[in-house]
Amino acid sequence: MPLPSFDLNEFKENLQTQFRPWQRSFQFWVRAVDIYTGYKVFQLRVSFEKDMEKQEAMWERQHELAADKIYNMCCDLGGFFLKVAQIIGKPDLAPAAWVRRLVTLCDRAPATPFDTIKLVLEKELGASVGEIFERFDENPLGSASIAQVHRARLKGDKRDVVVKVQHPGVQELMMTDIHNLQALALYMQKTDIKFDLYSVTKEIEKQIGFEFDFKREADAMGRIRLFLYTNNKKSPVLVPRLMKDMVTRSVLVMEYIDGIPIMQLGDEMAKRGINPGGKVGLLDYGQVKDLPDELRLGYASLMLAIADGDAKRASESFRDLGIETLSTCEDEQNEMFKLAETMFDTTMPPGVTMLQPFSEDSSIKKISVQTFPEELFSILRTVHLLRGLSVGLGINYSCAEQWKPIAEEALYAAGRLKDRRFERRGRRTFIRRLLSR
């Protein structure tokens, strides 16, 4: 009787697959504990130094040391930690030493070899690459934590397209990373940070899950494109056109749009000596979210309060949104308003180029955010990204002031705001007037 065949390489590969999540978890916790304890020991050491200038120099060296460790962790583990680097590596939030180190990680996701990408494409699209594409660039235009994009040209078409393909097997590892981060968040909010970080990480888990469904992303892209072009035929915002019948859960084919990354716009203007003009192209729709009406209207009310400098209404809006806080500071209402501005507005105080929301004198330290609704994280992250862009471009503006007319219109339509100005507008909404400028 012949012995059953045994493939040693297959056995080793299956074993590695089973143990990979445990290995990543171990690597994460060893490094996270090292960074955390490094800061705790340093806080004790720096407390003995009375000279403020020397204290600042000591903090800068500690941040540089931690930045190197965070950079190495994100770079080595990749995947979800590249997204973490993008979130915390913004000049308006993290220490300057962190920003200088982490900003280089935004485009550092390793690319999946083309042979693997080719297998994914042919499985998802049901035909060979040669049958579908006249030309396909094997070297990707870019690679991110979830997918990479290639430039190509469909057969019988003279226009180029972009082919977005997921990295195989990355979803399971990313979920492992998120669960580890949730455990760290629970510990941090009980010991050091008076903020409901766990709810934030739960929403991250939900949104990351959405990003692995390209059909959902294509639907969001189509709806936004229809909205923009219906309201104005000459919209200043470009949304790529989807290629019919070329969207699956793991592959998305869309129109190629040539342009300049927005963070390089300042360099381009300096090089040309003029404003390059043109339009804005929105390319990634993986984290588009529909807000429930109550949340949307609650946020609209908060925007009006911030834009009008109304601290009392801002506090009421926090409660309406389900944000539960605990404070023992003397000027609670004023600190609550500062907290609202820090979390939900893009403006920077005069002379300030970098917010430090977790410094000892910040509102987040003075007011404990005990409950933070998960769905608000999408708004929080959007404002954070806009603030990072504005700081990077040297622009200081208030999104609350910019969005105030839209917020007023939404509240008026819901019967929560009485104002005769809106009765005269008829069908010509603020959105349409805004896009027609």
TrEMBL record:
Gene Ontology molecular functions: kinase activity
Coiled coil: none
Cross-referenced InterPro entries: ABC1_dom (IPR004147), Kinase-like_dom_sf (IPR011009), Mito_struct-func_regulator (IPR051130)
Chain ranges of the ABC1 atypical kinase-like domain: 105-266
Keywords of the record: Kinase, Transferase
PANTHER family for this protein: ABC1 FAMILY PROTEIN, PROTEIN KINASE SUPERFAMILY PROTEIN
Name this protein carries in UniProt: ABC1 atypical kinase-like domain
